[in-house]
Amino acid sequence: MRIQAESWGVYRKAHRKGKRSVRKMSRQGANPYLLSLDSFLSDDAITERVNLGVMDIPTEKIVGVATPDKQELYSYDFLPLSNPDTDFSTKWCKLYWYYLSNKGVRCPISCYEYMGQFYIVDGIKRVSIAKCHGVPTITASVIRLLPQKTEDVQVQRYYEFLNVFDKTGLYQINFSYPGSFAKFQSAMGFEPDYHWNEADRLEFLFNWPFFEQAYEEAFGGYLKITPADVFLVLLEDCPFEKLREMPPMVLVQLMRKKWNKFYEIQKQQDTSGEAIPAKLTLL
Predict the structure, then answer these.
(1) Domain boundary residue among 148, 182, 205?
(2) For the whole model, what pTM was predicted?
């Protein structure tokens, strides 16, 4: 009974936050609901569908749904919008109760991966619950949709990412420039064509969230270059074995000390015309 009561409390809190998310995005003139893959991607834009099988994917990279039929049941950040006295909320709470009772949702969701992000085909409630509960990864059956190769910068970066994924099996490592991964492999002590094994992945994934948190703490949204870009710069002077042992605030200060380097990297890639601070106040 305690778990059931807790699930209803979680739903009510998530529902209130979802309503606030919708109001916020609507005031900004942005889509307040889940992004639908069908709304912007046509079949003729896809060259190939690749079945990646069942794997763990980062919940932060799940950004929408494949089709628009359920997109308005959730806010853009996967918070439920149906009132607490509906069949929808009852099913959501029962699934949340199952989640707490069984230590996780184990049945894989199904989704498409396009340009490094995921769009749900089946399992949207499981994703909503995972995101509400702060779960970093979820098990999924994944179909990759490969875009037509063009001169578009984002498409080129994506195909660079596919080389990274082929060697590491990780979605967390995204670089802004071609050739960065070869430097990264070398800095990590691997040959350029080395394929990471499970132990390599688990060791990296155990430490990566601490680095991402330090990245957010250090720059607070100032940087558009990726955490992997920043990580590569730090690896030039400090081996992975040392970085992973640093206390969080020491790592934050190390990043901030290299602001000028990151500023130059961002200036080279930024074409938006937005102002970038030439200096960052070191708190």
Answers:
(1) 148
(2) 0.85
